[in-house]
């Protein structure tokens, strides 16, 4: 494993980090694609998370030196907390997570996140699920509508972050949004966040213009997700008649790492072999001619052009 400093946190994290998603037979993530409303309901736990296959992946992650873990909904939080007790890691690990049902469009105008008592209670609830004393990285993902609805919203969030840190409930805060560039830049400008958590791939690339640069100026870590475009990359591969999905995956991840601002890629899988293969790219992050060719072929597909157009519109809203 190779490690990079995560901004000014003083923590070196693995360049490949582990996502908390578990998967259905159709390869879609569990929870959100089973019952979305239940998945974002605090306290609802889907059965079967954190089972034997997941523990095999966790054991492999330890062997590979992965020390950063991202979990989203409560089933993933509970499973990771339980699994870390069943299989204690041989080195310190760091967990990133978010308040359940508070983020993105799950709560209108993200009002719950702006109320300190409500956010504090949620952090305390999450710590019980994780079976930990402190949330290492708390992801506070709000939308542009929150800022438009409340002129004091950024001030409230900054206060809440400082108080959660002061009370020892969280160590660091993550900036995140689905409202694109303008909201990310406002989050960064507060100085309250330590990490930028962002969708970033060669179709969803607008962050290269301003967000990554501003994050670097603020000495913030950058955690990238969706290197494979939520699986859409492999549908594009079918259109381009690309059979070597492994080489394509390597190309996609190397593209993300070609930007020095990126600290780590969150990698989700249900197979140990895939996780092991992802780490192998760190031996040589230079793009081969074959890998560059695959990216060019993907960019020529109609699926890519549609996806890129939609992501550009979303990010630059």
Describe this structure as you would to a colleague:
By secondary structure, the protein is α/β, with parallel strands linked by helices. It is built from 14 helices and ten strands. Strand 4, helix 3 and strand 5 form a beta-alpha-beta unit. It is globular and about 55 Å long. The relative contact order is 0.13.
Key features of this structure:
single chain; 317 residues; alpha/beta; TIM Barrel; 8-stranded parallel barrel; two-stranded antiparallel ribbon; 14 helices; 14% strand
The description of the largest β-sheet is: 8 strands, parallel, barrel
CATH class wording:
Alpha Beta
N- and C-termini, Cα separation: 37 Å
Strand order of the largest sheet: 3-4-5-6-7-8-9-10
CATH homologous superfamily designation: NADP-dependent oxidoreductase domain
Instruction: Give the total of beta strands.
Output: 10
Structural class based on helices, strands and sheet pairing = alpha/beta
Q: What's the structural domain tally?
A: 1
What is the CATH architecture annotation? Alpha-Beta Barrel
Strand fraction equals 5-15%
Radius of gyration: 19 Å
| Distinct helical segment count | 14
Can you write the helix and strand succession as a string?
EEEHHEHEHHEHHEHEHEHHEHHH
Shape: globular
- What is the helical fraction, as a range of percent? 40-55%
């Amino acid at each position: 494993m190779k490690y990079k400093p995560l901004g000014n946190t003083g923590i070196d994290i693995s360049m490949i980090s582990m996502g908390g998603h578990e998967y259905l037979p159709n390869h879609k993530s569990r929870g959100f694609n089973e019952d979305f409303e239940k998945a974002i309901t605090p306290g609802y736990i889907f059965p079967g998370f954190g089972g034997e296959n997941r523990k095999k992946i966790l054991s492999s992650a330890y062997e590979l030196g992965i020390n950063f873990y991202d979990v989203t909904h409560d089933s993933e939080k509970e499973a990771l907390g339980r699994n870390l007790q069943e299989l204690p890691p041989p080195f310190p690990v760091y967990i990133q997570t978010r308040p359940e049902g508070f983020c993105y469009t799950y709560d209108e105008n993200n009002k719950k996140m702006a109320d300190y008592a409500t956010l504090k209670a949620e952090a305390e609830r999450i710590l019980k699920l994780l079976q930990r004393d402190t949330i290492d990285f708390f992801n506070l993902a709000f939308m542009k509508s929150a800022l438009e609805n409340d002129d004091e919203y950024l001030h409230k969030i900054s206060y809440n972050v400082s108080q959660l840190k002061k009370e020892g409930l969280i160590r660091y805060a993550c900036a995140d949004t689905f409202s694109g560039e303008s909201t990310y830049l406002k989050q960064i400008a507060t100085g309250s966040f330590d990490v930028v958590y962002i969708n970033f791939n060669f179709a969803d690339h607008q962050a290269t213009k301003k967000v990554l640069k501003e994050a670097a100026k603020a000495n913030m870590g950058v955690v990238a997700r969706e290197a494979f475009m939520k699986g859409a990359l492999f549908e594009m591969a079918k259109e381009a008649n690309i059979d070597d999905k492994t080489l394509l995956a390597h190309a996609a991840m190397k593209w993300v790492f070609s930007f020095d601002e990126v600290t780590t890629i969150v990698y989700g899988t249900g197979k140990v072999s895939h996780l092991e293969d992802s780490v192998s790219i760190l031996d040589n992050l230079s793009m081969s001619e074959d890998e560059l060719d695959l990216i060019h072929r993907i960019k020529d597909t109609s699926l890519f052009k549609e996806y890129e157009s939609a992501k550009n519109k979303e990010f630059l809203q």
